């Protein structure tokens, strides 16, 4: 009995202490500018130099992404490229020398080319074919070549090429005439793992033998499958599948006998695995309730490594050196941008290489998201990520936003997002919904929105608004909706088909005319086109009637609430005309509309000055029309258009 009393008192003490700390943060909370939030640095990648003395990374510290090196033991970043127009993303050091590969496109047009930076600083474009995109697939096991894809022969399909390290000569090793996607290559370079997406939950995998030109299907049943890696001896293929299950697990396939065996299963999707260079470790990624969980198994013992404990942060990605002694990893969370660490797998020595949060920002002022679930109109349980401002209380209610992810088929994750934290810091609650059709919650849930977009998935968002309205800290009359790409479509669908539910809409490069979007998808999406048609509808058939019905552009007369639209002129997925026309259509209603257009961005804004312009415009719009602190007087309807330009 005494133990029970002690436990209850301890719980009460911790609860009171936490409540006191929360109140102290709210009292001392500082509102930060968008410039301060965007002064957080974003760092990505991390290729070890051959001697492991440094890493090649990408960072946006200059305002756009460039390549840098940083010592493995910690120290200053050394700039390798100084682009001031197109972003540069580092790919890798060469395996045995300090030459570097990187990629860049034309200000967001997604036509990536691969470049070589030589040891003397000379830059060579390795894939110069105009209008053709290239993708780096990986180094050969012997380090004498790398594998890449290019659609220079046929813009619809990515052929597979091999380029030698010694003389940079290139040869075609697989001509892709059937729309397959490359997944992996065996150590002896004789076997290619290919996949073919059929529909939402039907993707097949094949093994192509370069010697006898045979193509062998690996999976037996209709299911979602992805080839992950070959064994070092090239005798086994490892792949993920959800055959007979709700969530993906890992199978291994004996290439000679056709025998299959399950090797890894968790209660969530195992989203991918790979082996380190000499197969000492198997690295696995588990999508656990919208958060990455990483396991590293020692192949000799069959046991998982004990990784460092980062308290409130989690390891989001890892990369292991070619000699399998060093690991780089990123650690972050919903309230912390990811930092780069180096970990010695033998000595357990740990070095933090970055501290990317702006020094002006008190980390205690950021909000840790929590996962919540609510019932939708038909009883389906909808997961969501909830950010509640520190200053919110039952006495001081705050406005809120339903945030919808991209896709279709995407997922809101427990990751740091500068825009979300910026809005929360300024007093807006955010509920990032994972409506039906989102990935990560089983294949039944994933398929629930097939051929009913803008209907049941939209109702999930409305029920998210209703959940927010029921919270004591939320002003139920001030709830808006926001999203990008598919989330932008959902924003416009909400304002069009449920015009009285949300107070405002924030449409970030959202689809508004499915007929045009599905007809104008980039040519390199050819291999996914049929799958898109099966999920959304075929614009060339009778499906066009339904696609027109669910396209907000044809129903703009129903929009009655203020709207802001943001768009990149170089966007190859959602064309600028989508945003141009929705703005023009809604303005005919006399509704306040703001339009922010960036001439040098694509599907997503990557340049800091553009992000600052975009995010500050969103906050100003919300402060005017959602908080209504500066609402226009009756009869006065301001209409504002911003065109942001930067030199290209």
Automatic annotation (TrEMBL):
A GO molecular-function annotation: hydrolase activity
Sorted UniProt keywords: Hydrolase, Protease, Serine protease
Residues of the Peptidase S9A N-terminal domain: 90-354
Protein name: S9 family peptidase
EC code(s) of this entry: 3.4.-.-
Key word Hydrolase present: yes
UniProt domain Peptidase S9 prolyl oligopeptidase catalytic: residue ranges: 415-628
InterPro entries noted in UniProt: 6-blade_b-propeller_TolB-like, AB_hydrolase_fold, Pept_S9A_N, Peptidase_S9_cat, Peptidase_S9A, WD40/YVTN_repeat-like_dom_sf
Alphabetized PROSITE patterns for the sequence: PROKAR_LIPOPROTEIN (PS51257)
Gene3D superfamilies: alpha/beta hydrolase, TolB, C-terminal domain, YVTN repeat-like/Quinoprotein amine dehydrogenase
Source species: Flavivirga amylovorans
UniProt xrefs under SUPFAM superfamilies: alpha/beta-Hydrolases, DPP6 N-terminal domain-like
Enzyme class: hydrolase
Entry keyword annotation includes Hydrolase: yes
